[in-house]
TrEMBL record:
The keyword NAD does not apply. It is found in: Mitochondrion inner membrane. Residues 24-209 form the Tr-type G domain. Belongs to the TRAFAC class translation factor GTPase superfamily. Classic translation factor GTPase family. LepA subfamily. Belongs to the GTP-binding elongation factor family. LepA subfamily. It is a peripheral membrane protein. This is Translation factor GUF1 homolog, mitochondrial.
Amino acid sequence: MLHLSHPPQNNKEGSTIDLNKYPSDNINFSIIAHVDHGKSTLADRLLELTGTIRKGHGQPQYLDKLQVERERGITVKAQTATMFHCHKFLGSDTDFLLNLIDTPGHVDFSYEVSRSLAACQGALLVVDAAQGVQAQTVANFYLAFESNLAIIPVINKIDQPTADPDRVKAQLKSMFDLDPSDALLTSAKTGQGLEQVLPSVIERIPPPPGKNTLPLRMLLLDSYYDEYKGVICHVAIVDGVLHKGDKICSAATGQSYEVSDVGIMHPELVATGILLTGQVGYIVSGMRSTKEARVGDTLHHTRTVIQPLPGFKPAKHMVFSGLYPADGSDFEALNHAIERLTCNDASVSVTKESSTALGLGFRCGFLGLLHMDVFHQRLEQEHGAHVISTVPTVPYIFEYSDGSKLQVQNPAALPSNPKNRLIACREPTVIATIIIPSEYVGSVITLCAERRGEQLEYSFIDSQRAFMKYRMPLREIVVDFYNELKSITSGYASFDYEDSEYQASDLVKLDILLNGQPVDAMATIVHKSKAPRVGRELVEKLKKFIDRQMFEIIIQAAIGSKVIARETLSAMRKNVLAKCYGGDVTRKRKLLEKQKEGKKRMKRVGSVDIPQEAFHELLKVS
Ligand SMILES: Nc1nc2c(ncn2[C@@H]2O[C@H](COP(=O)(O)OP(=O)(O)OP(=O)(O)O)[C@@H](O)[C@H]2O)c(=O)[nH]1
């Protein structure tokens, strides 16, 4: 029995909820959409409508809990919330338990979306009434479609002056064969049309197929580390019933645990003592680290033999970057921070590495550049770590005459003078989907050609929007492609990609040298045709960001022994107080403190101090 601090509207004040009242009539659904089409706002309204959170709780996008999500206005982690709703069903009032999963919209986090969909039988496909179908609408529709989910189209933001729901209905019909009369028209902002959403969810989405009478099988959806409770796992009960105190076992590791707490996300954790078939909730079972909680694993009662669930495809790391402590003596602190953060974001791969320039650090694999950026920001914000990250790279394959193959996640690891002759270089490619207003077609084709793209498809969604598919080297899109695409289309382009095969490519390793010394952490692998431009841009950027020092600094870019770009930074003593005429002591003190802070964030490479921003700026050179 569950005692609610804020009982849902559908229940009388002070009443208790017995989960046994909702035998597999519960419904699990997800909200999927292109970025910013209003998923989190719609989730808020549904939580309010069911009394799960109070109206005017003062915190929009309630389920976006991370600081980085609030600052950037994006969803990074999928979040589940259980709601209770009374609905007239087959002639009588019936209480339903609804599990809503709010998912991220950005392409980097589509792995979160596909995991969330595994626990659902239906999805609300939210489309902005003015913007219409966008690239992630297409990607998310197919994720849901391939998972055999019931799809309810929701045309949102109909309050906008430029809203054109009929055009969006026509797009949904022509692109996905969705019946226009099935679409719900809503405004998550004004509340218009919201009353149809939950009845449609209940009537159109089937309940989960499992049985309470079968042996317990639960799918581990996600996990995170809580300072007080330890590892908390989010689970979906596929078959059977789980009680507090049960002994469970992991199908992946064979390790056994005792369930010390079990409950639902309402939307905060609320203990219920039980979870039944089809329900989504949390468990605490004494796991010591989230490494034990393998996402996609099947948990079952000890001493029962079960067929494990298919689980998930492992996360595919698209971008790798080195992370180093800004101050070398903070290595252990960074190690600890990364361990903690990966507990909450298991899609990052981490291996230790060392660099002559930066000392001991980590090579991390990310799902994309935004994911890398978000991880970096979370390390700083949530764990107070000061980090230097190296130029992101994609996993290249180099093949040698003796038949050996080398997968290179760190350009510094590529031998400049290999023992065996290099016979082939291969780079990963992606299939990119781009949707743009027709007037931008020309400039987007030019951009894609510059980025070595090969056009696979070009058609029109309707009279105003073009749809294009390109095969592109992953390297070309991870570095600032999306920003450039947005800027040449005045922000109207939408973009999504899925990974594809490796292709042969003419690649070279570009070294950066400071006073003749190669800086391993700045080495990068580029296409031969781009090496002269990238080399020039890198040395120019470095010249701008490295402060003059007491000796001359020669900055060079080189392929092997051939220097392809060079800049010289003449010697100077930098006096931060030079501009401080007048004798304002506090201002002087402030400047000196700022300088001290700046020094902490410097990296000494050989004899040259390099500020942290220089490393950041190098990330943007494509
Ligand atoms: N005018 C109008 N604005 C809306 C409506 N719904 C959401 N918005 C606004 O649209 C913006 C994006 O809303 P979110 O709910 O954060 O969108 P999202 O799809 O969850 O975004 P991601 O999580 O980043 O994918 C916010 O500024 C909302 O206030 C609506 O019905 N009408």
